[in-house]
Fold this sequence. Notes:
The chain contains three helices and 39 strands. The protein is mainly β. Residues 1-67 have low confidence and may be disordered.
Amino acid sequence: MKRRMFVVCILSLLLSxxxxxPPNTPIPGESGQPLMQxxxxxxxxxxxxxxKVAESEDQTGEPHLISEEKPKxxxxxxxxxxxxxxxxxxxxxxxxxxxxxxHFYAGEYxxxxxxxxxxxxxxxxxxxxxxxxxxxxxxxxxxxxxxSEDGTVKFTVQMPKSKxxxxxxxxxxxxxxxxxxxxxxxxxxxWNDDRYLVDDWYxxxxxxxxxxxxxLGLEDFCLTLPDITKExxxxxxxxxxERGLYELLHPDEPDIxxxxxxxxxxxxxxxxxxxxLDFSIDCMAVHYFPYEDKQETEYHYxxxxxxxxxxxxxxxxxxxxxxxxxxxxEGPQACDFLLVHPDGEIQYLYSxxxxxxxxxxxxxxxxxxxxxxxxxxEIATGEKCxxxxxxxxxxxxxxxxxxxxxxxxxxxxxxxxQRLVAAxxxxxxxxxxxEEDGTLSSESTPVYILVMDFxxxxxxxxxxxxxxxxxGKFTMEQVEITTNQMGEAVFEVDxxxxxxxxxxxxxx
Length: 508
């Protein structure tokens, strides 16, 4: 009898308030054994009531009192071996999270994540299964910060290193409320019947000043300082920074996604004077200001970093160069595009693909064909010109988004006659087939010829007389155009399997 009373008291203390289970402590049970293996213990209701008021801390760090009036929770013991992870208040009642041990195959076991819900009186009013099946038991780890929030129950768990992953922090969200679950399912945030979300955070850098964690993909980060924790996404689109961070994490491993991009490991440091977290590589730096939640990017390319000259202004004083050229994994060649001024200043334009087209209209303006559209810019300010190409790309609705109906797939510049000769077709928006009036069409689609002068006025817009596939090998099919400055343009495309086609265009 004394032994039984001792077990009840221990359970009462552990389950008070938002209680969590200490590491290596399966509950309920004795000597670390699951409840189902305790045949001599009678089935009893789990209680969180304490004989006296207990003191703990809430998420703000302020002490609060756990009421001794808390009811007994009528927890129904599952038939399988199980362990209580913890309990907390949920809506107008309470909720208990627990794990069950299930046989998988060949002596292997998996551990579920389930819950039971209770009203204010402690009566069971519901239960559910998060459909989380993991070979690592959570009850043997440190469960922290268990709490309910907007129809969910959340907690933090420190996952150990395994042969599949490094040690990391998991932020687990259990989708208890049905509407919350259905919303997550509609937004494709969960797979199949899973009712949980997991954010994995790995340590990137840590010292006495800060802790910086990252998620796979090296875009999302979590910075912890003595007085603040901030999650943020790097806004820089330059893949060189991502490669530098990869080199920092894996100095001896090749990056198969960017194998040709030769970037030294990035450095990450806390600038106490500016109160900023600084990411730096040889050609750029990003400064994140957590107290203002903003980012600033600066570039410092040198002449030694320049690679291929893409275009030159008519007077020869300004040029467009590439830097950091590399072959994307199963994709086109990519690079940074830079504008080099007469005084040697190097201006970063953007990171794109070598299939993009950059050209000069005169000594004050340059043009850019990127992502299927053409834009004119002022060299002095870098701003868009007031006068833009007059071609109408149209719009269509595609998977809930409004996108351009047509896209440029080839371009060449006739500088002598100041003509811009382009090829365009219907937009497939990354798909291997073209959308035709909301239905799927064949893989090839007609190509059109577009001719404009350097003011953006359309001089010719007609079918080119051939078709092109939506995709080549790993990338969109491009049309190669060569002008002879005599009003003729030669069009070539790999998928035509015919002789190149020559078309004429107006030059006067």
